[in-house]
Amino acid sequence: MSSLPRECAKLREHLPELAEGVLGGSDRARLEGHLASCPRCAAELADLRAVVSALRTIPPDPLPAHILGSVRRAVAGRARPIARTPVQHWARLVLASSAAAVVLAMALAFHFTQGGVKAVQPMLAKKADQFGAALQRKSPAAGPSVEVAQAPVGAVAVPALPSSKSEGHGLARAPGPQARDRLATGGGAPITETPPQPVMDAALAYGDGVPEPAGGGAGRGGAGGGAFCRRSPDANQSKARRSGGESAGAARRDLRLGAILPEATAREAAKAAPAQPSPPPARARLGMINSTRQLTITLAPGAAAEDASLVMRQPDGHPLVLWQGRLTEAVTVPIPAGALGGGPASIPITIESQLGRRQYVLFLPVLSRLGQTAPSLPAMRYDGDPLGNVFAQLSALSGLALLVEAPLDQPVYGELPAGEPSAALARLAGDAGFQVDSEGEIVRTLTRAKGG
Amino acid sequence: MNQANNARTSRLVTQARGGDREAFDGLVELYAPQVYNLSLRITGSPEEADDCVQETFVRAFSAMRSFRGEAGFFTWLYRVALNVARDAARRRAHRPLLISELAGPDPNQPAPDVAELARRPGGGGGPPSDPGLLASPSAGPEEAVAADRRRQLLLAAISSLPPHHREVIVLYDLQGLSYQQVARVTNTRVGTVKSRLNRARLALRDCLAPHLDLLRS
Questions:
Q1: Is the CB of B198 less than 8 angstroms away from the CB of A15?
Q2: Shared domain check, B127 and B56
Q3: Tens digits of residue pLDDT in A2-45
Q4: Dihedral angle over CA of A40, A41, A42, A46, nearest 10
Q5: Beta strand ranges found along chain B (DSSP E)
Q6: Half-sphere exposure of A34 (CA within 13 A, CB side)
């Protein structure tokens, strides 16, 4: 376009109208005069005529036979009555007013009776105790219920993720700049700052299980050298209560969000965390998928070589082995181009080794085709799709990719029931310590909110 | 014929505004094909289009009281349908893809062309095409294949346009609305519609440049 002569560039705007035959008046005369002396624009007009003509030949698709019936059913089942008579309208108003009056009268009667005051007093005292306890938990002297450390944007690591359903669970994540702002202003939890490091590799830790302390649902800070954003036992207990008991709570933890943290930061956090049973060491590092669509798996320092494989598990369960062999130092695995076609993509990945097998779903907000890299990746908000919204935001905030651990015997995200994406999202995000509002927006990034 | 249709539509609309479900069913029968095609081209997915049609008519039925008849019912309904389809398209665009949706024929191919886009979910849109759709009834198999290819190319190119441009192309070129109708449906001015249409067509021309010979054939 920039190489077009000025007159061509100006008149080019009118070419589609001329191609369609709807351009008239002085514009038409001027353009036709120009076309007579400009073969380039004349050729473009011919092209446009071909395009417009071809567009008009696209026939409408036939209406699928079932649609009329399904629309009728939907209208009958979901639509509210559209016409009300004035009598109905007044009847509703009278009923609503009466109900409000009754409720108000009962409330006033309760308030001014001796019994009511007596009933309220213990409740108030209990609330005050709870509030005091909560304050104590939140005070710096008492130690935070959540510790958050800063990781360099773009560094990817995976925390240890508990595999036992009875375990507590926590979140380790590396917030990006936007998350830093929110963390710093949002919750008041201490933020352990570490200088950004130019590491691009990641530590993959296997969550082989941390015994759950008595009392249920303990946090597992520092587990696997990667998890150090820890949820307090109280938080887990309250969460279990909210989910309707221990079994329901366990079921909710079937899918867990991994975190993205550099190994050095994770080590620091592990040191700062209270003593917990030692987790199994990370055995491999899972790198980011780079702009050439390659994923590097590196043997963790000190880990023994082992046989492993990288498997893409397709929705029908059929595994697609991307790489299989002996992991001695590092291996680079190409990822299919379609995964990087723009927008978030999910790749179920199974990491298998002699010592264990874990399945993850790798979410990629990679925009390699646009030449963008993680540090310049803006925070993304995806309206209308809560699940995509959360994952996109988590991915953007945390650097580049997210791993979601999924049990091998249960479907991964891509196969979650279509009917309740929001419920599935709430479970995933909730397990990771995120809260999601009704529109799918992450409203808070601190797990401590749940404990308080 | 047109007048008869208009009279019938007016009668059905009046009755439906009064809560007549059967009259509304009549409107559904009249307009479902157009709403379906609009939704299909905007979302690029038959399944999404299916849902969009339902949602459009449910919303329309619920809001019939607010329809005052200043704009034509058709325009009003299209506006509802476009909003529903826009939401669906946004959701679809940002949804993580399944692995089965990702694989192209050549994993090492750097960037897909419009033909590849057409094969992807959300790319071309519509169900597997009928090879004869763009070909004349007497066309042979070769022409039918070429016609299918043309259709795929065009739909993929349309789906690659930015949403506003795609909408005007779909409404004006594919659905045959006038400038004024497109302006009312998209809640813009006629001048804006023309401007977007011009840019969209130029973009299509650029996008389809390598395949123009096929389009002309």
A1: yes
A2: no
A3: 456 777 877 877 888 888 888 888 888 888 888 998 888 888 88
A4: 100
A5: none
A6: 22
* Best mutation target, B67, B95, B148, B170, to test chain A (most A CBs within 10 A): B95
- Asked if residue B180 belongs to a domain, the reply is yes
Work out the number of other CB atoms within 10 angstroms of the CB of residue A394. 30
User: How many folded domains does chain B comprise?
Assistant: 2
Q: What is the DSSP pairing of strand A148-149 with strand A191-192?
A: parallel
- Find all residues with CB under 8 Å of A192, minimum gap 6, and list them: A147, A148, A149, A150, A268, A269, A272
| Complex ipTM over 0.85 | no
Its pTM stands at 0.45
Query: Does residue B106 lie in a domain region?
Result: no
Question: In whole angstroms, what is the distance from residue A98 CA to residue A104 CA?
Answer: 10
Q: What is the pLDDT of residues B103-116, one digit of tens each?
A: 333 333 333 344 44
Is pLDDT above 60 for B71? yes
pLDDT tens digits, one per residue of B11-37: 888 888 888 888 999 999 999 999 999
Contact A387, A421 (CB under 8 A): yes
Q: Which two tokens stand for residue A400?
A: 């580049």
Residues of A in contact with B102 (CB under 8 A): 336, 338-339, 341, 345, 347
Determine whether the interchain pair B94/A68 forms a contact, defined as Cβ–Cβ distance below 8 Å: no
Range of the domain at B202: 111-216
